[in-house]
Design goal:
heterodimer; A: mainly beta; six-stranded mixed sheet; five-stranded antiparallel sheet; globular; B: mainly beta; seven-stranded mixed sheet; about 5% helix
């Protein structure tokens, strides 16, 4: 059973601080990883993807991947109240018969306090 | 470029009825996946279609079914609705590229979802 684990939170950070969201995955064969943001009552929207070890930066967001530790993280610099949402981590892995499947964690709820 | 379009957005059904949800993927995307989201279980994978063929399937009963048309549009159907089927149903599309290590070919984009309430 492929699993993606996230701390459900809520994670509260003050405005302007760095928010750090973490995710671990069970399938060592997972190849690509994705972070989605979901506002209450809305659908998930893609923030960024990563598939190589190390850091990947996009504006205020940095994704970090450590395949040896099976660990993915998302850093949000200069957190804003508008960043308050649930963040979903997802891992893509081979599921057999030439098929790949995306497995989602249950998400971490982030609250940025003004 | 238009995003993923889902219809209807909101619907209320009675136990025992059936429902059909529709999804139009992003132009050029050949893969359509369906997910069920509930507060307790999070996002759960239902199935994926690529070029009119079901390529992957999650652990849901046979009451949940889907299909994909030649224009990549997809529908999912839930028969004999139960109260526990109340959820947000999300459709997602991607290029469907299965080359190893290509995150961009497998990145999925979600539609706004269909909120189903079973009473």
């Amino acid at each position: 059973q492929k699993e993606v684990e996230q701390n459900s939170g809520p994670l509260s950070v003050p405005e302007g601080a760095i928010a750090s969201l973490n995710c671990t995955y069970s399938d060592r064969g997972s190849q690509s990883f994705f972070w989605y943001r979901q506002y209450s009552g809305k659908s998930p929207e893609l923030i960024m993807s990563i598939y190589s070890n190390g850091d990947k930066e996009d504006g205020r967001f940095t994704a970090q991947l450590n395949k040896a530790s099976q660990y993915v993280s998302l850093l949000i610099r200069d957190s804003q109240p508008s960043d308050s949402a649930t963040y979903l981590c997802a891992a893509l892995a081979y599921s057999g018969a030439g098929s790949y499947q995306l497995t989602f964690g249950k998400g971490t709820k982030l609250s940025v306090i003004p | 470029k238009a995003g993923v379009t889902q219809t209807p957005r909101y619907l209320i059904k009675t136990r025992g009825q059936q429902v059909t949800l529709s999804c139009s993927p992003i132009s050029g995307h050949r893969s359509v996946s369906w997910y069920q989201q509930t507060p307790g279980q999070g996002l759960q994978f239902l199935f994926e279609y690529f070029s009119e063929t079901q390529r992957n399937k999650g652990n849901f009963p046979g009451r949940f079914s889907g299909r994909q048309f030649s224009n990549s549009r997809s529908e999912m159907n839930v028969s004999t609705l139960e109260l526990g089927d109340s959820a947000l149903y999300l459709c997602a599309s991607s290029l469907g590229d299965r080359d190893r290590g290509r995150a961009d070919g497998n990145t999925i984009y979600f539609g706004e979802g269909s909120w189903l309430t079973v009473v």
